[in-house]
């Protein structure tokens, strides 16, 4: 069962990774996607709105009976939306994000969590969450998280390279190029912008779709695991990324060796997966504007999972989208960097929580 879930998960990761790629000028689809891996990382600032929706989540056995616990969770998550709106600028480094969680099932609720990040600190606004006891004395204040202090408390050493945005962009560029290089042109197609379902205000010069179908998902996952992933691990092994990733080269080499020795088993597992996994839809559209930046991306995934051992049938349908605007322009932040009595430390939060028995 675990191997089957792993196969499904890796396939999803593959497509979601490609979803991060922008596209360049009007070219052949794969060429556009490859060029965009570099172009997208040249953004020095942007505004972003993203939404991820669980349209359907259900599980039933072959006799039509459903699992009560799963059914409860499915009712809670069905039509649930996760939103992420924000603004980013590279210099001086500042990011403002608002995470929204919107549950629309039997226990409908909405709450948002604003976050602010600078070069060396992060601030998270303490929300008032329904059914979860958070003292009113801290609700609305910003919890200050200092990576250097957290590292010290955990007995490790903070490395500023972990926060190097320019290095992170370079790393992302190399990884995306390595992944895209392994996929055949047949995975990439042009979509007429008029038929791409773009939201109002998105002016697209070209829309490129990366598509995984029920016929090619085994090949797509195999390509990622056996060809693309080893190249990604080679990139991770580079000395220039050691301080940012905080992963020992020996650990990466060990994983790469295990991956190579188990490649035959992975192929067999994916062949077996064809018996129980049906990909109804799995595609990612990326819209490119006249300046060759990715201004809109959408994900559509619809899969059925029929476990031959437990006789349980799982259906999952999700959609997601991200829209980018004000690329490389001067940004406006809704909140100033918190200070004074707006801020609480982790110790102060723990003290306030202890007063109510937590």
Which keywords apply here?
single chain, 358 residues, alpha+beta, twelve-stranded mixed beta sheet, 12 strands, 34% helix, 29% strand, disordered N terminus
Briefly say what this structure is.
This protein has one domain (2-354).
Describe it.
This is Lipoprotein. By secondary structure, this protein is of the alpha+beta class. The chain has one domain (2-354). It contains 10 helices and 12 strands. Strand 4 (109-118) and strand 5 (122-125) form a beta hairpin. The chain starts with a helix and ends with a helix.
List the helices and strands and how they pair.
Elements: H1 2-19, H2 29-39, E1 45-61, H3 68-77, E2 81-89, E3 94-103, E4 109-118, E5 122-125, E6 142-145, H4 147-153, H5 165-181, E7 188-191, E8 206-211, H6 217-236, H7 242-245, H8 249-261, H9 263-273, E9 277-288, E10 294-306, E11 312-325, E12 343-344, H10 346-354
Parallel strand pairs: 6-12
Antiparallel strand pairs: 1-2, 1-11, 2-3, 3-4, 4-5, 5-6, 7-8, 8-9, 9-10, 10-11
Helix pairs in contact: 1-6, 1-9, 2-5, 5-6, 6-8, 6-9
Assess the beta-strand content as a share of residues.
Answer: 25-35%
Spell out the helices and strands N to C. Answer: HHEHEEEEEHHEEHHHHEEEEH
Instruction: Kindly report how far apart the N and C termini lie.
Output: 37 Å
On the 0 to 100 scale, the average pLDDT is 82
Strands ordered across the widest β-sheet: 7-8-9-10-11-1-2-3-4-5-6-12
Task: Assign an overall shape.
Answer: globular
| Low-confidence residue ranges | 1-25
Biggest sheet overview: 12 strands, mixed
Total helices: the number is: 10
* Rg (CA only): 22 Å
Q: Helix content range of the residues, please?
A: 25-40%
Number-wise, the strands total: 12
Count of spatially separate domains: 1
Secondary-structure class:
alpha+beta
């Amino acid at each position: 069962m675990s191997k089957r879930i792993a196969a499904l998960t890796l396939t999803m990761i593959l497509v979601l990774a490609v979803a991060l790629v922008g596209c360049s000028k009007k070219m052949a689809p794969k060429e556009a996607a490859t060029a965009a891996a570099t172009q997208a990382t040249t953004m020095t600032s942007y505004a972003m709105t993203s939404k991820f929706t669980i349209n359907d989540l259900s599980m039933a056995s072959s006799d039509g009976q459903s699992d009560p616990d799963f059914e409860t969770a499915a009712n809670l998550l069905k039509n649930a939306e996760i939103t992420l709106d924000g603004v980013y600028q590279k210099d001086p480094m500042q990011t403002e994000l608002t995470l929204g969680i919107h549950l629309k099932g039997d226990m409908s609720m909405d709450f948002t969590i604003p976050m602010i990040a600078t070069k060396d600190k992060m601030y998270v606004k303490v929300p008032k969450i329904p059914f979860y006891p958070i003292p009113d004395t801290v609700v609305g204040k910003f919890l200050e998280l200092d990576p250097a202090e957290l590292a010290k408390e955990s007995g490790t050493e903070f490395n500023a390279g972990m926060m190097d945005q320019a290095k992170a962009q370079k790393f992302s560029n190399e990884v995306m190029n390595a992944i895209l290089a392994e996929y055949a042109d047949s995975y990439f197609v042009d979509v007429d912008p008029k038929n791409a379902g773009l939201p109002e205000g998105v002016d697209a010069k070209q829309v490129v779709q990366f598509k995984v179908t029920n016929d090619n998902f085994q090949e797509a996952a195999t390509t990622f695991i056996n060809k693309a992933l080893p190249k990604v691990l080679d990139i991770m092994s580079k000395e220039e990324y050691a301080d940012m990733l905080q992963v020992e080269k020996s650990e990466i080499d060990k994983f790469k060796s295990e991956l190579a020795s188990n490649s035959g088993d992975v192929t067999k597992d994916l062949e077996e997966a064809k018996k129980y996994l049906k990909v109804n839809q799995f595609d990612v559209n990326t819209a490119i504007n006249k300046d060759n930046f990715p201004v809109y991306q959408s994900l559509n995934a619809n899969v059925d999972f029929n476990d031959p051992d437990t006789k349980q049938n799982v259906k999952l349908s999700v959609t997601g989208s991200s829209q980018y605007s004000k690329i490389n322009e001067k940004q406006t932040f809704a909140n100033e960097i918190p200070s004074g009595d707006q801020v609480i430390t982790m110790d102060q939060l723990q003290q306030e929580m202890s007063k109510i028995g937590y």
